[in-house]
Amino acid sequence: MDEVPSEGDGLPPETRIGRTALTVSDLPEMADFYRDVVGLSVLGRSDATAVLGVEGTPLLVLEHDPEAPTRRRSGAGLFHNAFRVPSRGALGDALARVQERWQLGGASDHGVSEALYLTDPEGNGIEIYRDYPREEWPRSDDGTVRMGTYPLDLEPVEAVAAGDSKLPTGTDVGHVHLEVSSLATFRDFYVDRVGFETQTAMPAALFVAAGGYHHHLGANTWNHRSGPAEGRGVSWFEVVLPDGAALEALEGRLADGEHAVTEVDDGVSVTGPDGIEVRFRVGTSHPILSGSYL
After folding, report:
1. Which residues are in the VOC domain (predicted)?
2. Which residues, including other chains, have CB under 8 Å from residue 291's CB and lie 6 or more apart?
3. CA angle 265, 268, 270 (to 5 degrees)
4. What is the spatial distance between Cα 198 and Cα 217, in angstroms, rounded to a whole number?
5. pLDDT tens for residues 198-256?
6. CA–CA separation, 198 vs 187, rounded Å?
7. Cα Rg for the chain, rounded, in angstroms?
């Protein structure tokens, strides 16, 4: 039996989500959608790949595979990518773009954030959200964050829109939410092995984070997925660490587990539960802009 890391082997509080990557069948349509509706800028483009982001910072990689099948109904994978904006005004601008050019799928107040939901042309979920000040987040007696789902009044959000067509500086990928086949397996890997901390646990969902954030990763079994992630949809996502020492410590924990570790870009890659690849690197560069990707 593998040795489980001790409680002190968690991730540093500065840990964050970096880029996410999707396998797509129609690269031009998807790149245009994320530019015109979501508001990302195209930072680089080739026949095989499009890289989108904000102010030169890559956030989303679209990997073209015209033969990729549609994700199976039973397959695990992405529930949504969550783009976090720095203000309610930026959220209002995003709402205006979605209402003008696409269809809003939902809107919620989670007690820690205000969130808009939509689905891209190939069925991938998207959240665009802004956080409330951290000191206002509701917390349980043990200090973990309590999140809920309540109706969001869109009028105050619409009222502060400035008409910007792009996501502003400061936008990032706040979290990634996955559909998994087992919450226990998700917890074993991302909490016990990688080192995230549980923030909110529900009967069919689990939210984990570093540094007391409400969640960097979410997982749910709401749709009873039972197979691995295959075909279109999530290709990989990235966890960014603050320094080389943190990456080295993480590599040691991963090496003691059942998942093979391989080198990629300036970090490491692991195929985790449900066949979903997660990459880890130090937050000093953006290797996706190298010539090998464009």
Report:
1. 16-131
2. none
3. 125
4. 10
5. 999 999 999 999 999 999 999 999 999 999 999 999 999 999 999 999 999 999 999 88
6. 8
7. 18
Residue 268 structure tokens: 């490491």
Q: Position 143: which residue type?
A: G
State the Cα angle at 212 between 136 and 40, rounded to 5°: 80
Q: How far apart are the first and last CA of the chain?
A: 43
For the domain with range 16-293, which CATH number is right: 3.40.50.1450, 3.30.40.10, 3.40.720.10, 3.10.180.10?
Answer: 3.10.180.10
pLDDT, tens digit (0-9, with 9 covering 90-100), for 80-106: 999 999 999 999 999 999 999 999 999
- The alpha carbon dihedral of 250, 251, 257, 258 has a sign of positive
Residue that is written with structure tokens 């998700």 in the block:
186
Cβ(116)–Cβ(104) below 8 Å: yes
Which three-class secondary structure string do you get for 119-161? ECCCCCEEEEEEECCHHHCCECCCCCECCCCEECCHHHHHHCC
Q: Count the Cβ atoms, other than its own, within 10 Å of residue 254.
A: 22
For residue 98, which phi and psi values (nearest 5 degrees)?
A: -65, -45
Percent of the chain having pLDDT more than 90? 88
Closest CA to 280 of 54, 8, 16: 16
Q: Do the beta carbons of residue 287 and residue 268 sit within 8 Å?
A: no
- H or E element at residue 252: helix 244-255
pLDDT at 256 (0 to 100):
82
Distances, alpha carbon 4 to alpha carbons 43, 138, 188, in Å: 41, 31, 9
Neighbouring C-beta atoms of residue 167, cutoff 10 Å: 26
Q: Hey, where are the domains in the chain?
A: 16-293
Q: What is the DSSP letter of 171?
A: -
